[in-house]
Design brief:
The protein folds into 2 domains: about 1-45 and about 145-215 and about 310-365, FAD/NAD(P)-binding domain, CATH 3.50.50.60; about 85-140 and about 220-300, D-Amino Acid Oxidase, Chain A, domain 2 (2-Layer Sandwich), CATH 3.30.9. It has 8 helices and 18 strands. It has helices spanning about 15-25, 55-70, 90-105, 115, 145-160, 205-210, 275-285, 335-350; strands spanning about 1-10, 30, 50, 85-90, 110, 135-140, 145, 165, 170-175, 180-185, 190-195, 215-225, 235-240, 245-250, 255-260, 300-305, 315, 325. The strands form 3 sheets. Strands 1, 2, 8, 9, 10, 11, 17 and 18 form an 8-stranded mixed beta sheet that branches.
């Protein structure tokens, strides 16, 4: 039986960042990945956006500190194209409160009127079936990265420090034995002081196999892609908050999607029935989309790992000594992974995360009457 100080379940971007920072602290680290290679789950299928425009302090700072790290990492291919939120009248007041908080934390965010919002492209502020747009906010430090490049670089650094990655290794069960955990996998048994659950969409199932109730479920999301555009126009990743429709440039193409409310579960493949309602709201606001062609073969799907409040679960599991969660990011894992890696290293090596207050994201919040009320969920 092989023994580790920390055994991480999941070698996506969260698990990789944690592995690097834990190995950096001198701990013996192992990673279990059920897929043939790392970064093929939500990490590899991410829309790759990073933003600081959240409404809760913890989420803002998780992303802001992570962006600073990506900015200094060539493998991240960080490109600050910005995020543009088109805000309807009904959300304007609460959205501006979020901007005030962001700016108070030293995060660059601008408020723009309709004319300023149309700097890059035209849209219809008043569109049939949608709420009128009153104004916009723009985050100049927001942008896009290469999640696969980030993940593989963290794993390279972790391996250099002695971490071991086991691919094609399924987590089967775990039970506490004395002061440690015995973990059963498709490749045999492991013993570890800490299990770190970074299994993404499978985090809830990993918990169940260890006899723990961790409220993380998979939810399928679609990303549609256009054919190449003869004269691509670089512009921010844009989100219409009245409909949930979003789009951004991808080389010489455009990718777009819309938050859908389908039931959770492991449902595979593209749901082409979602294309029509997505385009309906997109064309209403951005009529010029009609000139673009769809490339079905370039479109893709992936899983969000969702929690009841669409915020991650970070830190030690109550009642299960030695079990730590870093999961349930609900589409925000890539943009928060760098800082999460640092915090989980503190949580395990120092006994408690201290660089940032993660109490609002701990498991115990689900027993509270007032939960985290993050409003900028896309």
């Amino acid at each position: 039986m092989i023994r580790y100080d920390v055994l991480i379940v999941g070698a996506g971007i969260i698990g990789a960042a944690c592995a690097y920072r834990l190995a950096e602290r001198g701990l013996k680290v192992g990673l279990l990945e059920q897929a043939p290679t790392p970064a093929v789950g939500s990490t590899g299928k991410s829309a790759a956006g990073v933003r600081v425009q959240f409404t809760e302090t913890t989420n803002i700072l998780l992303s802001w500190h992570s962006i600073q790290e990506y900015r200094a990492m060539p493998e991240a291919a960080y490109r600050p194209i910005g995020y543009l939120f088109l805000v309807p009248d009904s959300l304007w007041e609460s959205h501006l409160k979020g901007v005030e908080l962001q700016q108070s934390l030293g995060v660059p965010v601008e408020v723009r009127g309709l004319e300023g919002a149309q700097e890059w492209f035209d849209f219809l502020p008043t569109a049939e079936g949608l709420e009128p747009i009153l104004g916009a906010t723009f985050g100049p430090a927001d942008g896009i990265v290469d999640p696969h490049g980030i993940c593989m670089e963290y794993l390279r650094r972790a391996r250099t420090l002695g971490a071991k990655v086991y691919t094609e290794t399924e987590f089967l069960a775990a039970e506490p034995v004395g002061l440690e955990w015995r973990v059963e996998t498709s490749r045999g048994s492991f013993q570890t002081s800490f299990v770190l659950n970074a299994a993404g969409a499978w985090a809830g199932e990993v918990g169940r196999r260890a006899g723990l109730s961790i409220p993380v479920e998979p939810a399928r999301r679609m990303v549609f892609c256009t054919a190449p555009i003869p004269y691509p126009n670089w512009h921010p990743l844009t989100i219409d908050l009245s409909s949930g429709f979003w789009f951004r440039p991808e080389h010489d193409r455009l990718i777009f999607g819309r938050s859908n409310l389908e039931d959770v579960g492991f449902q595979e493949g593209m749901d082409w029935s979602w294309l029509e309602p997505t385009l309906a709201v997109g064309l209403a606001r951005f009529p010029w989309l009609e000139r673009l062609q769809l490339d079905q073969k370039a479109s893709w799907w992936g899983y969000y790992e969702v929690t009841p409040d669409h915020n991650p679960i970070l830190g030690r599991m109550p009642g299960a000594e030695g079990w730590v969660n870093a999961c349930g990011f609900s589409g925000h894992g890539v943009q928060q992974a760098a800082m999460v890696g640092r915090l989980m290293a503190e949580e395990i090596a120092d006994g408690r995360a201290h660089s940032l207050d993660i109490n609002p994201l701990r498991y115990e919040r689900f027993a509270l009457t007032r939960k985290l009320a993050e409003k900028n969920i896309v």
